[in-house]
Amino acid sequence: GISVEMLRRGKLLSNVCASSATVADAASNFSNLISLEVPEARTVFLKPSTSPRRKPSVYIPHNIDSIPADVVAVNPADLGGAIPTFRIASPTCDYYALRIPLLKAGFRRVPDDAVVFSSNIVWGKSAPVAVSSPRWEHYVPRNAYQKFNHFPRSHKHLGDKRGMAQSLRQWDESVANTFTPQTLFYPAEKEAIEKLMTNGAPGKRYIWKPSRGSCGRGIMISRSGAEDNSWRLIMKEIDYKASDTTAPDMARIPYMSYVVQEYIENPLIVDGRKLDLRLYVGVTSFDPLTVYLHNEGLVRFAAEAYANNSPPSSLAAAPGSNSDMRFKHLTNYSLGRKLEADQHGSLDLKWPLNKFRTRLDEIYGADHASLSYTALMAKAKRVIVETLLAAKSNISAATKRQNVGNGGDNYVELFGFDIMFDDSGNAWLIEVNTLPSLESSSTMDYHVKSAVTTDLLNMGQLELFRRPASAFETCGVIPPMETADPNVLRRLGDLLHSESGLCHEGASSDMTIPSSSNSLFELQMKLYDEHRYRGGFERIFPSSKHPLVPHHMQTLSPLDLAAAQFTL
Q1: pTM of this prediction?
Q2: Single Gene Ontology BP term (predicted)?
């Protein structure tokens, strides 16, 4: 927990300190991995920036014994109002793999509802689209140095299954068709779906998913054919549940919009089970689009052996003779662990990527080059880049509308790309998660997810800035003590921004002027700093390993073309 002495010294607030480090993640079974008692950080580490315009940013170490030589150690007591802070804006985002690295790096947690306090990093659900939403103020940048974990409208154009499919359609449908199954929208395209089902090859399967669903809920499978009644029954079920005014809104909303996709009939099978990959993708900018893929990820298995001749069924129904097919068809961990709990034993539902790589080599060896780990990951990288390019224009435009004078540099986002492979090694995009779960259900889970969050935050370059005592008092936070040592003050002047900083509404930034030599220099320095502190991330766009192709040009800006020159 957080000690009373820490409160006396004015470093934490009174009403959240106990919960910040002592609330266990739901379903977490690895309490012996780390102590719930997070000691007060004795040092805040600052890593230098290559750019003379940027102050040093907080360095979050994986291991306290391996700090880079150029990292500066600062006593937290000397930082006063510039002490690094974080706010978790939703209880559903409160995970060990995020919270513990921040606390150990000297960050202090502020109340979840302290929306007017300028935290260094705000982590929460996706920002609402409507300005009128009561949650809107939680995601408005108040300072040029703040970071949020979502770009504006990223969920609308990527996290929402229908929105993602629309982004791909509008961008280049012929390219999208090479890595996404045929997709239609229900009920918006009901007539087209009825025609497809009626005239389609008898027995061809289609999977129905709520546009905004999660955890495998509401997923159903039908077969096409004029004589097959499964798709009619599914339409009837969706229509009934969407219009049931006696049900609460939260129960009805998932049924109001569905995507209908061709089912991948020949999935890659490992040890008898269907699988997909959860790949962690960091985006530090949408203009220029800058994409990183982490070398840590998860392989998620269906709970039961795959059966290709399963009957059509509502996979989301209560367990029964047909609904149990969901454990063969769906790889959602939240679903699989329900069966795991019922059977009181481990079903080996998740692997780290390195175990998957080893197993592929054992199964296929050198005789199946298309199914090698290297080949599969190369195809996955292409899917990731093409998908983000499809959403780039809309998200970068939304980001510029919320500019606070720093070129839209208030955002860094972690995406969870779910990708499946068929038995020929083709990669298929299943969905993009704008809030991938950071829940740690095992030591392996914690290792993977804490590594990803640590590296993402280091790439995000969280710069410190001074806050006046009144900022703390307004939010019910005990103001930190300010140092009076002139030597310390001189040193901190080189390390810290004032809160006002560059934060002028509507102001422009050199980063938005591609012809400016300053803008190109700042861009190069930013990319270089991200590269230095990327940890397990690899930049996959722009990258010399993935050169630009003609169909990319329709969405690239001058900044994208400039960034492509700085390949590392």
Answers
A1: 0.86
A2: microtubule cytoskeleton organization
* Residue 376 vs residues 77, 179, 290, 321, 394: alpha-carbon distances, Å: 49, 13, 22, 35, 29
> Which residues of 318-412 form beta strands (DSSP E)?
350-352
> Which residues are paired to 350 by β-bridges?
300
Q: Is 411:150 a contact under the CB 8 Å cutoff?
A: yes
Q: Of 338, 300, 298, which Cα lies nearest the Cα of 316? A: 338
| Residue listed under structure tokens 């089912």 | 263
Assess whether pLDDT exceeds 70 at residue 404. no
- Residue pair 89/59 in contact (Cβ under 8 Å)? The answer is no
Q: How far apart are CA 419 and CA 428, in angstroms?
A: 6
Chain-centroid distance of CA 54 in Å reads 26
| 8 A C-beta contact, residue 527 and residue 566 | yes
Q: How far apart are CA 483 and CA 130, in angstroms?
A: 43
pLDDT of residue 409: 86
Residue 417: pLDDT over 60: yes
Length of the chain: 568
Tell me how far CA of residue 181 lies from CA of 39, 105, 240, in angstroms.
50, 43, 27
Average pLDDT (422-430) is 96
DSSP 218: T
Domain ranges of the chain: 4-150+448-508, 157-433
